[in-house]
Amino acid sequence: MANRDTAAPRTPLNRGRVLRAAVALADAAGIDTLSMRNLAQELGVVPMALYKHVANKDELLDGMVDLLVAEIGPPATGLDWKPAVRQRILVARRTLQRHPWASRVIESRPAPTPAVLAYLDSMIGMFRAGGLSVDLTHHVMHALGSRAFGFTQELFDTAPSPDPQTQAVALPDISSRYPHIAEIAARAAHDDQSVVGPGCDDQFEFEFALDLLLDGFERLWRQGWSSTA
C-alpha cells in the first residue's frame, strides 16, 4: 500500500506568494483579467484561502504596487543629487516597463501605501541631501509628478494607428485643417510601440522632459530660488 506521507508537500500559501502570483498573472494576461477567483485557480486553492492574506481586491492591488516599488530598489550611492535622481527614475521606468499594467494601477490607488510613502520620502531625501531647500523640493516633487515612478500621463489616450492606406487618404485633410500637428507628425522619429502617440519615441520623450526638469531644478537651486521671493 502506497505511503501517503511520500507525496510532495504543497508550498504553503502566504502573502508574498499571493502577491507574486498576482503580479505574474497581470504580466501574462493583463490587469483586467485579474480576479480573486482566477488568482486562486492559478495558486491551486479555493478563493476563500486568499482572504487570509489579502482582505479584498484593493488590498491585493496595493500589495502588488508595493512589490514593484521594492523592485525599483534604493538610490545609487556616491553620485551627486542630479545624476542620482535621474538614474533612479530611469530604473523605476524600466521596472514599470516590465509590468505594463503598473502605471494604471498606481494611478488608481486612492491613497499611498507605506511602501509608496517610503519611496517618495527617499526621493525627497535625495533632493534635500543635494542641498535643495524644503521650499524648492516641495515644488520639485509637484513638477515631477508621476515621473518619480517612471511614467507620465499624456494629454490624450492613444487610439490604434490607422492602416497606411487610411493614413494616406486622411493626410491632406489633416494637413489643411491642423497644419502644425501635421508638420510635427511628419518630422517625428518612428516608434510603433510608443504610448505617447504614433511616430513618437517614447523613451526619448520621457528622458527629454526629465532632463529639462532636472536642469531647471538645478538652475533654481543655484539661484537660491524661493516661492516667497
Structural class: mainly alpha
Oligomer: single chain
* Structure summary, number of beta strands: 0
Question: Percentage of helical residues?
Answer: 55-70%
Shape: flat
Largest sheet: none
Q: DSSP strand (E) fraction?
A: under 5%
Q: Kindly state the mean pLDDT as a whole number? A: 87
Element order, helices and strands? HHHHHHHHHHH
H/I helix tally: 11
| Uncertain stretches | none
Radius of gyration: 23 Å
State the distance separating the first and last CA atoms.
Answer: 86 Å
Protein name: TetR/AcrR family transcriptional regulator
DNA-binding region: 35-54
Keywords: DNA-binding, Repressor, Transcription, Transcription regulation
Organism: Nocardia suismassiliense
What is the strand and helix layout of this fold?
Blueprint lengths: L14 H15 L6 H8 L3 H4 L6 H16 L8 H17 L4 H7 L5 H16 L4 H11 L19 H14 L1 H9 L14 H22 L6
Helix pairs in contact: 1-4, 4-5, 4-7, 5-7, 8-11, 9-10
Structural features:
transcription regulation, HTH_TetR, 229 residues, TetR/AcrR family transcriptional regulator, mainly alpha, flat, HTH-type_TetR-like_transc_reg
